[in-house]
Structure formats: structure tokens, C-alpha cells
Amino acid sequence: MTALDPASHRPVGLTVNSFASVSLRPPLVSFCVSRDSGSWPVMRTADRLCVNILGVEQRAVCERMAAPRVDRFQGLDWELSPGGAPVLAGVVAWVEGAVEAEHDAGDHVIVVLRVHHLHGQPDGQPLLFLGGRYGRFTH
After folding, report:
1. 3 three-state secondary structure
2. Which of 44, 86, 88, 98 could form a disulfide with 2 if both were Cys (CB 3.0 to 4.6 A apart)?
3. Of 76, 45, 22, 56, which is closest to residue 137 (Cα–Cα)?
């Protein structure tokens, strides 16, 4: 998940879990973010956020976005989505939107995002993370 800090205009990012489609009309998706996140309080104030679906070759990017207290964008290429959120280079898909709602859920917050733009690579192979291990879909 990426955004531009409204105060500094610098990119910020984090790793979320449980990304899912919620509604087609209106177009909504959801994700969960840890209540302990230091990045979420900044990101939630941005006009637009971008869900970056990483490809199988982007494990290091995933690990960097999950690491505490590092410059998560150092050495990474990115460009702005139509609404002004960072899109990481090489992702298999991205979904840009605005926060529609937040719901308390134990040690996490469930965030509902209203989708404004999206794009996907038809041949892209997404990176999976399940049970503490990285993987990929097999055909």
C-alpha cells in the first residue's frame, strides 16, 4: 500500500493483509492494517492510496515494505497513479482509491477503499504470502 504524505509530499508505504473485493456498485475493496503501524496514521490522511499487487520477483520489495524504520522507497522506481499515489515499478496490478470507511477489528483496522482507477498486467504472476512463506500460483 502506498501514498504520498500530504505534509511532506514524500512517498510512504506499508504491507497490508487480507486484501479483498467488497462491492462492484460502488467499486469497493478492503484491506487490514495493524493498529501498531507507524505509517497508517500518515497514509490515511492522503487523498488517494494505491494497492500495489507485487509480482513473484518482488519478494525483496514486499520485505522492505514490511520492515520497520527503513526508507521503504530507497532505490525503488515508482510513478504516480492518475490520482497522485505512488505505483511501484514492476507490479502486476494496482488499485487506486480513497478511504471510504474504517472499522475497528481487534489489533487491526479494516479499511474500505473506494476504487477510482486500476490497472493490471494480463500475464502478471502475483506474489503470494501464506503461512509465513512466499509462493506463487501454479497452473
Report:
1. strand
2. 86
3. 56
CB–CB of 127/136 below 8 Å?
Answer: yes
d(CA 1, CA 52): 6
pLDDT tens digits for range 10-33? 999 999 888 999 999 999 999 999
Q: Which bin fits 111, alpha (ψ -120 to 50), beta or left (φ > 0)?
A: beta
Cα 121 from chain centroid (whole Å)? 17
Residue type, 101: A
- Using CA atoms, how far apart are residues 13 and 73, in angstroms rounded to an integer? 8
In the block, which residue shows the cell 494480463?
122
pTM score, whole prediction: 0.92
Helix ranges (H only) for the chain are 40-43, 59-66
